[in-house]
Specification:
By secondary structure, the protein is mainly alpha-helical. The chain is about 70% helix and about 0% strand. Helix 2 runs antiparallel to helix 6. The longest helix has about 35 residues.
Length: about 210
C-alpha cells in the first residue's frame, strides 16, 4: 500500500468516527467551498476598483485563472486516467454522490489553487483568506471520500502554476486594455467613482 492510499484510508477512518461533521463537510466539498472562493474573487475586484486598472487586472486575472485551470484540468485528468478511490477500494465511506470521471487532479483543488495564487498576487490579506478556504476545500474533498490526497495536492499545484503563468502573460496588455476602458462609459467596471483616493500606506499590498 503506497502513502497515497494509506493516507486516504486513514482519513476515511477519521470520517467514519466524526458523524457530526458529515453535513457541513458534504456541503462544503460539493459547492460551498467554491462559493466562498467566488465571493473572495468578487471582493477582490470591488476593492481593486478603488485603486487602479493595474490592480483590477490582477484581481480579474485570478478569476480568469480559475476558469482556465478548470478547463485545462479536463483533458489533463483524462490523460492521467486515474480512477476514483471508491472505484478501486471497497467498503470506503463516501459522503458525496459518486461520479465516473477521473480523480487526478481534483477539479475543486485546481480551482482553489488558481484562486489562492491569483489573490496572493493582488493582496496578501485576501490571498490568506483564500488559502484558508481553498486548503479546507482540498482537504474536504479527501475527507468526503471523493479523492486521494495526491489528487488534491497536485490540483493545488497545477492551479497555482496556471494562475502565476497567466498573470505574467496578460498583466501588461490587460492593464492597458482596462486603462482604456476606464475612459469609456464602461468605466464602472474598472473604477469606483464613489471611492475616495486611498493612501497607499494604508491600503493593501501593491501588486508587483
Amino acid at each position: 500500500m503506497n502513502w497515497n492510499t494509506h493516507w486516504y484510508l486513514d482519513l476515511n477512518s477519521i470520517s467514519r468516527h466524526t458523524n457530526w461533521a458529515h453535513g457541513i463537510a458534504s456541503v462544503y466539498a460539493l459547492f460551498l467551498g467554491l462559493v466562498v472562493l467566488a465571493v473572495l474573487l468578487i471582493v477582490g475586484w470591488r476593492l481593486a476598483r478603488r485603486r487602479s486598472p493595474r490592480h483590477v487586472a490582477a484581481a480579474l486575472s485570478a478569476g480568469i485563472a480559475a476558469v482556465l485551470a478548470y478547463l485545462i484540468n479536463q483533458p489533463l485528468s483524462t490523460l492521467i486516467h486515474e480512477p476514483r478511490p471508491y472505484q478501486t477500494l471497497h467498503h470506503v465511506l463516501v459522503l458525496v454522490p459518486r461520479v465516473r470521471d477521473f480523480s487526478m487532479p481534483s477539479d475543486h483543488a485546481v480551482v482553489a489553487g488558481a484562486v489562492i495564487a491569483g489573490l496572493l498576487i493582488y493582496s496578501w490579506r485576501l490571498g490568506t483568506l483564500a488559502a484558508l478556504a481553498g486548503l479546507a476545500l482540498a482537504f474536504d474533498r479527501v475527507y468526503v471520500g471523493a479523492h486521494y490526497p495526491a489528487d488534491a495536492l497536485v490540483g493545488l499545484g497545477v492551479g497555482a502554476a496556471i494562475a502565476l503563468v497567466l498573470y505574467r502573460v496578460i498583466a501588461g496588455p490587460f492593464t492597458t486594455t482596462l486603462s482604456f476602458i476606464a475612459r469609456t462609459p464602461l468605466r464602472r467596471l474598472v473604477v469606483d467613482a464613489s471611492a475616495q483616493p486611498r493612501n497607499p500606506a494604508a491600503g493593501a499590498e501593491p501588486v508587483p
